[in-house]
Amino acid sequence: MSQRSCLSVILAAGEGTRMKSAQPKVLHQIAGLPMVAHVVKAAEAAGASGLALVIGHGADEMRKAAAKFAPKAETFEQEKRLGTAHAVIAARAAISRGYDDVLVMFGDTPLIDADALTVARRRLAEGAAVVVIGFRPPNPTGYGRLIEKDGKLTAIREEKDCSEEEKKIGFCNAGMMAVAGAHALKLLDAVGNENAKGEYYLTDIVEIASAQNLDVVATEASFESALGINNRAELAQAEAIWQQRRRHDAMLSGVTLIAPETVFFSHDTEIGADTIVEPNVWFGPGVRIASGAKIHAFSHIEGATIASNCDVGPFARLRPGADLRNKAKVGNFCEVKQAVIEDGAKVNHLTYIGDARVGAGANIGAGTITCNYDGYSKFFTDIGEGAFIGSNSSLVAPVTIGNGGYIASGSVITESVPDDALAFGRARQKTIPGKGKELRERFASAAAAKKKAAGADH
Ligand code: UD1
Ligand code: MG
């Protein structure tokens, strides 16, 4: 089958009014990726080398987004939404290039798995002209029903065109189809619009093909993989299913999730074996974690690279560009952005490290802040190997702390500190013996005098 060429035509022209959104429906995200991009991924995983995206509503926004998530895709604009067959025909120029297999997919069915598509393509390779991907939803209302006669698929009847008897059929059209490229355009061009909605239905190619004695078959996919998204409740349902699958895969690949249902992954999270993730952790896009890391509870991590055996959290926030090298530690209530924390360095408590390097083995005391921004530009802080930054220090960038540099607690450091130097950036302490007691007595007698004067007034 691998020698057979394959085009995926992804229908995404619909408005999606039930999302109640200014954004085209298929650009709403699941696991941080537009749902139509999930469909593209599945098509590619099933071997589609050609990608045709049929757009309509929000075409400009769709083109811009597609350039990012599917730069190889061609876009075709369907000017009027006249039905799913009409939409597929919008990609005529791509189909007529002569692919062996044409996979018709829906941009709003993001959980479709590559296996269901591969099974359908296999049936084409065995000689079928049309393969319909069917499924058995808990409630079939609204779906096209698969009409079979003598074990053969003869028609798909849309709900609105079904007889009472046909409405009882539980085996439904998931919407997606695999069509032999040699027949595709001929079948599509034969579709008319004499039905309850006056639309050109893709589903009609089943009846047309069986009338021509072509081989038409149905395969069965899981309900979940055929889930179509029409509103935000269904979007959340798809997100939940996606997360559940991803957690399961992570655990089977050697990652411990103590409370899996509270850990959220992105479409591109990479996480190595023997990593332990405590409850309530959020992975935004662009996170890579090597093996043996510990991610403690309530950490929020995006765009970060975490090397082996790092310790993160609880309550850590790693923002884009955070780069933790082996055995680095970022503890509670710390925020790291665009900064390298080199091997074994510790940023343990209540600290902000942004636009910086923290050298290997350095220790950053509680409450340290890299002051990286003057309201207009960002500046860099370079902290050398083995440096010690005393608690509650402000490092005003641009500034360099040399290797082994030692910063006194409570310092405001505005000038660079050479290797192994000690820097104080605060007023020297002054201690006056007995002065505390004297002050207390003075304040007490002043208060008593005031009270007495107030009493005399009455
Ligand atoms: C379709 C199937 C139905 C199946 C159901 C599964 C047809 C005629 N019916 O119905 O048998 O059970 O999906 O969810 O195919 N689109 C366009 N241009 C158009 C019309 C639709 O791009 O002119 C796109 C939509 O944006 C959507 C997809 O095609 O992504 C499906 O269209 P939709 O209107 O949702 O079809 P259903 O009525 O759900
Ligand atoms: Mg639909």
From TrEMBL:
<dbReference type="Pfam" id="PF00132">
    <property type="entry name" value="Hexapep"/>
</dbReference>
<dbReference type="InterPro" id="IPR050065">
    <property type="entry name" value="GlmU-like"/>
</dbReference>
<dbReference type="GO" id="GO:0019134">
    <property type="term" value="F:glucosamine-1-phosphate N-acetyltransferase activity"/>
</dbReference>
<dbReference type="InterPro" id="IPR029044">
    <property type="entry name" value="Nucleotide-diphossugar_trans"/>
</dbReference>
<feature type="region of interest" description="N-acetyltransferase">
    <location>
        <begin position="254"/>
        <end position="458"/>
    </location>
</feature>
<dbReference type="GO" id="GO:0000902">
    <property type="term" value="P:cell morphogenesis"/>
</dbReference>
<feature type="binding site">
    <location>
        <position position="366"/>
    </location>
    <ligand>
        <name>acetyl-CoA</name>
    </ligand>
</feature>
<feature type="binding site">
    <location>
        <position position="25"/>
    </location>
    <ligand>
        <name>UDP-N-acetyl-alpha-D-glucosamine</name>
    </ligand>
</feature>
<feature type="binding site">
    <location>
        <position position="319"/>
    </location>
    <ligand>
        <name>UDP-N-acetyl-alpha-D-glucosamine</name>
    </ligand>
</feature>
<feature type="binding site">
    <location>
        <begin position="11"/>
        <end position="14"/>
    </location>
    <ligand>
        <name>UDP-N-acetyl-alpha-D-glucosamine</name>
    </ligand>
</feature>
<dbReference type="GO" id="GO:0009245">
    <property type="term" value="P:lipid A biosynthetic process"/>
</dbReference>
<dbReference type="InterPro" id="IPR001451">
    <property type="entry name" value="Hexapep"/>
</dbReference>
<keyword id="KW-0133">Cell shape</keyword>
<feature type="binding site">
    <location>
        <position position="352"/>
    </location>
    <ligand>
        <name>UDP-N-acetyl-alpha-D-glucosamine</name>
    </ligand>
</feature>
<comment type="pathway">
    <text>Bacterial outer membrane biogenesis; LPS lipid A biosynthesis.</text>
</comment>
<dbReference type="GO" id="GO:0003977">
    <property type="term" value="F:UDP-N-acetylglucosamine diphosphorylase activity"/>
</dbReference>
<comment type="similarity">
    <text>In the N-terminal section; belongs to the N-acetylglucosamine-1-phosphate uridyltransferase family.</text>
</comment>
<feature type="binding site">
    <location>
        <position position="337"/>
    </location>
    <ligand>
        <name>UDP-N-acetyl-alpha-D-glucosamine</name>
    </ligand>
</feature>
<dbReference type="Pfam" id="PF12804">
    <property type="entry name" value="NTP_transf_3"/>
</dbReference>
<keyword id="KW-0012">Acyltransferase</keyword>
<feature type="region of interest" description="Linker">
    <location>
        <begin position="233"/>
        <end position="253"/>
    </location>
</feature>
<feature type="binding site">
    <location>
        <position position="409"/>
    </location>
    <ligand>
        <name>acetyl-CoA</name>
    </ligand>
</feature>
<feature type="binding site">
    <location>
        <position position="391"/>
    </location>
    <ligand>
        <name>acetyl-CoA</name>
    </ligand>
</feature>
<feature type="binding site">
    <location>
        <position position="173"/>
    </location>
    <ligand>
        <name>UDP-N-acetyl-alpha-D-glucosamine</name>
    </ligand>
</feature>
<comment type="similarity">
    <text>In the C-terminal section; belongs to the transferase hexapeptide repeat family.</text>
</comment>
<dbReference type="GO" id="GO:0071555">
    <property type="term" value="P:cell wall organization"/>
</dbReference>
<keyword id="KW-0808">Transferase</keyword>
<comment type="pathway">
    <text>Nucleotide-sugar biosynthesis; UDP-N-acetyl-alpha-D-glucosamine biosynthesis; UDP-N-acetyl-alpha-D-glucosamine from N-acetyl-alpha-D-glucosamine 1-phosphate: step 1/1.</text>
</comment>
<keyword id="KW-0479">Metal-binding</keyword>
<feature type="binding site">
    <location>
        <position position="144"/>
    </location>
    <ligand>
        <name>UDP-N-acetyl-alpha-D-glucosamine</name>
    </ligand>
</feature>
<feature type="active site" description="Proton acceptor">
    <location>
        <position position="349"/>
    </location>
</feature>
<comment type="function">
    <text>Catalyzes the last two sequential reactions in the de novo biosynthetic pathway for UDP-N-acetylglucosamine (UDP-GlcNAc). The C-terminal domain catalyzes the transfer of acetyl group from acetyl coenzyme A to glucosamine-1-phosphate (GlcN-1-P) to produce N-acetylglucosamine-1-phosphate (GlcNAc-1-P), which is converted into UDP-GlcNAc by the transfer of uridine 5-monophosphate (from uridine 5-triphosphate), a reaction catalyzed by the N-terminal domain.</text>
</comment>
<dbReference type="GO" id="GO:0005737">
    <property type="term" value="C:cytoplasm"/>
</dbReference>
<dbReference type="InterPro" id="IPR005882">
    <property type="entry name" value="Bifunctional_GlmU"/>
</dbReference>
<protein>
    <recommendedName>
        <fullName>Bifunctional protein GlmU</fullName>
        <ecNumber>2.7.7.23</ecNumber>
        <ecNumber>2.3.1.157</ecNumber>
    </recommendedName>
</protein>
<keyword id="KW-0573">Peptidoglycan synthesis</keyword>
<dbReference type="GO" id="GO:0016020">
    <property type="term" value="C:membrane"/>
</dbReference>
<keyword id="KW-0961">Cell wall biogenesis/degradation</keyword>
<keyword id="KW-0677">Repeat</keyword>
<feature type="domain" description="MobA-like NTP transferase">
    <location>
        <begin position="9"/>
        <end position="143"/>
    </location>
</feature>
<keyword id="KW-0548">Nucleotidyltransferase</keyword>
<dbReference type="InterPro" id="IPR038009">
    <property type="entry name" value="GlmU_C_LbH"/>
</dbReference>
